[in-house]
Amino acid sequence: MKYLDAFRDREVAVRLLERIGRLVTEASCPMTFMEVCGTHTMAIHQHGIRGLLPEGIRLISGPGCPVCVTPVGYVDHAVALARRGDVIIATFGDMVRVPGSSSSLHNEKARGADVRIVYSPLDAVALARKIPEKKVVFLGVGFETTTPTVAGAVLASQSAGLDNFLILCAHKTIPGPMAVLASDPELQVSGYICPAHVSAIIGPAAYQPLVDELNVPCVITGFEPLDMLQGIEMLAHQVIENRPRTENQYSRIVRADGNPRARAIMEQVFEPCDAIWRGIGEIPASGLRLRDEFRAFDAARQIAVDIEPPVEHPGCLCGEILKGKTTPRNCPLFGTTCTPEDPVGACMVSSEGTCAAEYKYGV
Ligand code: SF4
């Protein structure tokens, strides 16, 4: 803990909280800050940040968990692919237990489907090389942090001449829903705790339209307790000064230009498309699809399957939770019918889901 301890210093935290308290006193109205990163959601719960803040600052969780925002129709598509005898589904672990309309990959695996958890898209490429008689479909779910690695896997597969590695693409980009939610009068978002990992790729400039067009303060913030308190203090300053801007609290990781190399590989392989977000609906140009020259790697275009009509669980409030309009404890299924062992909705499955965070750390 030698290095992390510096970001968990109790005395510094107390001083930051005193400063935040003075800013709240100075402010003429309450402030609502939204985080749009599942790791922030977990960190806020784990470190009890919400409970430390003075009245007058409210933290709400937005659509920061990529597994959670992936619509039920995508899970149904993956299930339909898994049911074919000639497909291996390769995925990060969180997707396996996300409920679809009538099944999940976990259920299909129990019935004999070949569903494998991998730790990198390159593991899926290796699988395709090892088992050439099967099609290996990697579930491409994630924001700008994950997408470059998937683009790299597509290029690696192309270089190796593999014709049995494909992806089922549901990649998304985060600024689109931030703009949608910042424009929602019901939410009254005073500022964004901008995601740390994603910002390491897209850089601070990606948030400038939110500042210029919607006057929303943005602070890229790290994950440790002092990072989060400092990020909140910076946002409160911006609100009081009435001078929205993009600031970078996490400058030890996030560079002024982000990661141009990662963006270049992402842009080489993917292009923007409209995308459906669970709870929010369709947002123009907020998704990524494989460019035409990479269509041979696109499972949606290469493998025909019948997909059942999407049906959400009627009692699940994931959609409202992902918009920051309600909290897990307002869901009547929370902790009773819906638990991490037996999840009803995606927000309880994912290790970054708001319901999972509340279940694990909530008091
Ligand atoms: Fe959905 Fe379960 Fe969360 Fe309720 S507690 S919103 S059912 S994931």
Automatic annotation (TrEMBL):
Keywords on record: Iron, Metal-binding
Domain of life: Bacteria
Molecular function, one GO term: carbon monoxide binding
GO BP, sorted A to Z: protein maturation
Keyword Iron included in the entry's annotation: yes
InterPro entries registered for this protein in UniProt: Hyd_form_HypD (IPR002780), HypD_1 (IPR042243), HypD_2_sf (IPR042244)
Family under the similarity heading: Belongs to the HypD family.
Alphabetized NCBIfam families for the sequence: hypD
UniProt name for this protein: Hydrogenase formation protein HypD
Organism: Geoalkalibacter subterraneus
Higher taxonomy: Bacteria, Pseudomonadati, Thermodesulfobacteriota, Desulfuromonadia, Desulfuromonadales
Gene designation: hypD
